[in-house]
Amino acid sequence: MELIALQCKNCGGEITIEDDKKIVYCPYCGTQNYIDDGTRTVKIVDEAKLEEVRLRQEEFLKRKASEEELNGIRDKKIKQRRIWRVFMVLAHILIVIPIFLLMKNMDDTPSINLILGMLGYLLIMPIIMGVTRPSIPSKKWDVKEKSKGRLILLFYISFAAVLLVAVMAGVAIFAMD
Fold first, then answer.
1. What confidence score (pLDDT) does residue 42 get?
2. With 0-12 CB in 10 A as exposed, 13-18 as middle and 19+ as buried, what is 111?
3. Which of 74, 50, 64 is nearest to 139 (CA)?
4. Domain span at residue 17?
5. Are 25 and 16 in contact (CB under 8 A)?
6. What is the number of other CB atoms lying within 10 angstroms of the CB of residue 67?
7. How far apart are the first and last CA of the chain?
8. CA–CA separation, 36 vs 45, rounded Å?
9. What's the pTM value of the predicted model, to 2 decimals?
10. Statement to judge: residues 79 and 15 lie in one domain
11. Same-domain status, 87 and 165
12. What is the DSSP letter of 28?
């Protein structure tokens, strides 16, 4: 145990304190004196650093959990997209092939009802495909540009098909006259 000598702030008398004491009374005037050994400040700084580290760790764990959840959702949506593609291909095959078989069995010019039906199909089907297509959530470095490009390509292909059917309808109308 080490004794330290200090002066009283009130009367200036000499006070002797022990190392582990935080409060000392002056033997002359009885004034209560508080002893600050500096450990409190160091402790506060350490607690602040520990709190900062804890917050960073919590943020990291939240981000990791969020990414894992997003990856699970992405995997589920990718499976849904594959099923959707197979369904759309089968739907096109079941609708388009009978129409072309009907056109083949006709005389030289297909009927206007068949051409208008095909035109309606080519106008409505891309809209149905765009609305029912499952979206896949992407990561931070967003890859939506690819999906936008594919959507634009689908639009141009549909537009070209509609023009082709419109030309066929025009030819059929002029052939009737």
1. 45
2. middle
3. 74
4. 3-34
5. no
6. 12
7. 121
8. 16
9. 0.43
10. no
11. yes
12. T
